[in-house]
Amino acid sequence: MYRAPVEEIIHTLRVTAGLDAALEEGRFGDLSGDLVDAIVEEAGRFASTRVAPLLEVGDKHGTPLKDGEVTTPPGWKEVYREWIDGGWNALTGPEEFGGQGLPMMLAIATFEMWNSGSMAFGIGPTLTLGAIEALEAHAADDLRQLYLPKLVSGEWMGTMNLTEPQAGSDVGALRTRAERAEDGTYRIFGSKIFITYGEHDLTDNIVHLVLARLPDAPQGTKGISLFLVPKVLVNKDGSLGARNDVFCGGVEHKMGIHGSPTCTMIYGDGFAKDREPGAVGWLIGEENRGLACMFTMMNNARLAVGIQGVAVAETAYQKALAYAEDRRQMRAPGWKGEGMSPIVEHPDVQRNLLTMKGLTGAARAIAYACAHAIDMAKTGEGDEARFWSDRANLLTPVAKAFSTDIGVDVASIGIQVHGGMGYIEETGAAQLLRDARIAPIYEGTNGIQAIDLVQRKLSLAGGQHFAGYIAELREVAEAVNASNSIEFGETAKRLFDGLDDLAEAGSWLQAAIAAGRVSDAFAGATPFLRLFGLAAGATYLAKAAVGGNNAGRSALARFFAENLLAETAALKDRVIHGAASLLAARTALS
Amino acid sequence: MYRAPVEEIIHTLRVTAGLDAALEEGRFGDLSGDLVDAIVEEAGRFASTRVAPLLEVGDKHGTPLKDGEVTTPPGWKEVYREWIDGGWNALTGPEEFGGQGLPMMLAIATFEMWNSGSMAFGIGPTLTLGAIEALEAHAADDLRQLYLPKLVSGEWMGTMNLTEPQAGSDVGALRTRAERAEDGTYRIFGSKIFITYGEHDLTDNIVHLVLARLPDAPQGTKGISLFLVPKVLVNKDGSLGARNDVFCGGVEHKMGIHGSPTCTMIYGDGFAKDREPGAVGWLIGEENRGLACMFTMMNNARLAVGIQGVAVAETAYQKALAYAEDRRQMRAPGWKGEGMSPIVEHPDVQRNLLTMKGLTGAARAIAYACAHAIDMAKTGEGDEARFWSDRANLLTPVAKAFSTDIGVDVASIGIQVHGGMGYIEETGAAQLLRDARIAPIYEGTNGIQAIDLVQRKLSLAGGQHFAGYIAELREVAEAVNASNSIEFGETAKRLFDGLDDLAEAGSWLQAAIAAGRVSDAFAGATPFLRLFGLAAGATYLAKAAVGGNNAGRSALARFFAENLLAETAALKDRVIHGAASLLAARTALS
């Protein structure tokens, strides 16, 4: 069973990702390091004792749909209620609406723990957070007053409604339509698919944020507007009124996260017979500017999905390590004990476990660094805010894609460590891979993230932001070098090499994009993102270890640098030399 | 739906893996190239039209156990009957017992197709084949006469009973006991787990091969004997007699291959109340020499499991390609068509599909080359037979582990190509990953295979066999180089580099083993096996293309060489420089 790695999370937040420095600058009012520790510890306790027991029951029971109502698995409602009563949903919400206004870093750290407990449970509140951000930034004041207090507390949950059968990665292709009503509201007609927590019984109301198209809207992404469509209409005093014309038409049968209802949502199909047809919606932001509003919530949702990769990897690692310490088979080389050795003593199993732990720690640090940048941007001004906003934008696709890719890798290695038991569902290792497998897909596939990184993020600040980031990472390698610590082995040299590969591949891509060689650049996008994640992650692991006095951390940083980082050369090669053979091979696909 | 890639299979068999040359030497009697083609085509038809429809129904229905009886999914019995009536089970069986005596290469090629249709279906006959081999090589004549005709025809199926809860990778730890009876038979007591097709309703009888320990046996692997234990006792005339005291105590709830019953088998628990307790067994080979007999079947079973990795990868590729050609999202760079382009036009999707196809083709060629070596050893004599036996031994762990690793990788990429649809079970892509995930585990985990390769296979013929194999592969690179074909790009150079990495890493490991630095060698085993697979696979893809006139094949070989092969440098580095940091990092595991 999952036990929150509280010390590791705190160290990554405060030392590696920069929270301590930000606290010293007084960016977060009277938030102190001690309070950070206390919050993480308390969240860790809740995640380990209350959320983690939901993991298996969620997988087994799923979320059946009957007569338009979705039932969450046994115990989920109670834990959700306890969870919001503990104030966990309100952690980062605006203080004006009852939130605690804490930094995004704490949100992400706690998200990690909820999702380690159960990804299917953890994903729900992520969407509420996105809805809060969109409403806070773009909604009219009366809507904010009416909805935000209850979304912040968690009394109601939120959803994001983008996808339609023909509009997945290409959201501009959506067809759901919105018509203007005489009272200034809108009527929404159409259906959406893959709506996470689109219908459930955890809360009395569900606040759907829906992308739709007005009759006179321009084509494509410039004709999309964002609407708030509550499941139950809300009276002016905040009490619940009539049922709105939005219903769940089906729940998907998925590979994993069975506890998370993935719904088809049908708007304006006249199920609410007592009224005019159409789901009543309220415009958020301006007409035809919906995509900009949606990006507000999508960016942070991407980071939140990234942390799911870290979360499931952490759980998989803990499970595999516990098994490897317990299970005895054969005698490892050098084993001096009685009889068979625990399999953790076998070098090949150590490689598996260290790979799991190294990738998890690297991805965690990247995700926390991204959260840090979001916090710095929010608490900064002018050039500084722009700098940190660029940093958040640069790191978001990496935090999403690298973390969720390694989430799948690590969960799969975790099965392998269990041998035959890993394939038996009751062991629980298989569920982690089934759960993890969604994260590289939703909130923009990892291919889309890689293209975003190459096409839009490398050019931030005229390309200087990326260069500056690498310079910062090089400082860490310098510090490792200067430490002269024997336990780092060749870490510094390896970091320099990896960062050189990152810089070189990045420059090549910047040049390709600048020259309009888009296919060449896109062909290298996925290897580049992985290269970015490995090089940055290795550097953060070293940063976590350097200057400290923790043998485990320096040994892990060294293992990562000397075993996993060597891949960067091949990835750089793929970026720079791979496109020609890739683009020439269309003929081989048949 | 799967369509057998008949042309690719034939080309890989005949050209790449060397069947044509062996046919020319007259090694297989009157078997001709035309007959090979006809057999592959006919098997392909059966696999595509009869086996493939079992895939989904197997996953949904599983194999429920009730009152000791296991029911296979609807339609399975009929297809199995048709399949044996078609003579497919008897393809390679000894002619003396009704088999067709065809080469192992054809067995492996057809296994690929059955398993592409449905891994859960395909695994059953694999075990029968193993039982046939063990009986043919080691059983007394009366047992051979009684059992082999029906095992060869497929009227009865076979199983392998090795694993016990405390004895997985370490088979020497098994506790199932055998007692000598006065009539020369034995009584078996104990239980076995993870027994594939241990109980089912496809055949009237099931022939269990069971490892057990005599009361006076030495400890460990030198005290293990192999017994034949039929589900139903067989009268001297071959008719069925009384039920034997072996029963299925449970069927596992697995991540995938739900159509394949994975059973706990209980021997001698007295369920057959009308007789003395103990399951009646017959010794195969000599007492305490059971492991040697078991290795006869295990080696080929490892290759057969390897081909499962190829098989599921092929199905995943076909499925992903079909989806990518149909699904339209956004406009790919350079897309000139109307509206959105099929996603196959996007470079990042092409990378995914080419990676899938390249890895599948590479693994197929390695597996077929291994089968070729088995055939050459069987049809050769003296030094030649020894040479080919070494070759089969060298390639078996690679054919098992590399193929099943890429099976998981390719199935996972296949999900990714489908986007959100990939995560929905009805799409079928998720099942392929769930099915594929067992293959790196059973028949010796891939970690065990890597250790076998490093510890026992690199030293064959005093290390010269490995060196000679690389020299053969270099000849292919030379041929590519000499072809001067523009479509190969840098393939030759890349192959030389990859083979140098393989040679260098192999020499380092040979030296480490020779010097007794076992931990160092084992630490590098898994990266070395992958390096071996990539370098050999890339070379085989080039061999398939060179001299031919097929633009797709040379483009694929080039893509593999220029995009995937670059990884060998990092893998070599991990082998040679990785152990120090790995072994120093035990402290990081907590």
UniProtKB/TrEMBL annotation, chains A, B:
The Acetyl-CoA dehydrogenase-like C-terminal domain, residue ranges: 473-584
Residue ranges annotated for the Acyl-CoA dehydrogenase/oxidase C-terminal domain, each copy included: 288-456
Pfam families recorded: Acyl-CoA_dh_1, Acyl-CoA_dh_C, Acyl-CoA_dh_M, Acyl-CoA_dh_N
Domain Acyl-CoA oxidase/dehydrogenase middle stretches: 160-266
Reaction(s) this enzyme catalyzes, per UniProt: 3-(methylsulfanyl)propanoyl-CoA + oxidized [electron-transfer flavoprotein] + H(+) = 3-(methylsulfanyl)acryloyl-CoA + reduced [electron-transfer flavoprotein]
The answer on whether this UniProt entry bears the keyword Oxidoreductase reads: yes
Could you tell me the EC number(s) of this protein? 1.3.99.41
User: What terms describe the molecular function in GO for this protein?
Assistant: flavin adenine dinucleotide binding; oxidoreductase activity, acting on the CH-CH group of donors
Q: What class of enzyme is it?
A: oxidoreductase
Cofactor(s), by name: FAD
Q: Tell me the InterPro entries matching this sequence.
A: Acyl-CoA_dh-like_C_dom, Acyl-CoA_Oxase/DH_mid-dom, Acyl-CoA_Oxase/DH_mid-dom_sf, AcylCo_DH-like_C, AcylCo_DH/oxidase_C, AcylCoA_DH/ox_N, AcylCoA_DH/ox_N_sf, AcylCoA_DH/oxidase_NM_dom_sf
Return the similarity comment. Answer: Belongs to the acyl-CoA dehydrogenase family.
What function is annotated for this protein? Involved in the assimilation of dimethylsulphoniopropionate (DMSP), an important compound in the fixation of carbon in marine phytoplankton, by mediating the conversion of 3-(methylthio)propanoyl-CoA (MMPA-CoA) to 3-(methylthio)acryloyl-CoA (MTA-CoA).
* Identification of the protein by name: 3-methylmercaptopropionyl-CoA dehydrogenase
Origin species, per record, is Phyllobacterium pellucidum
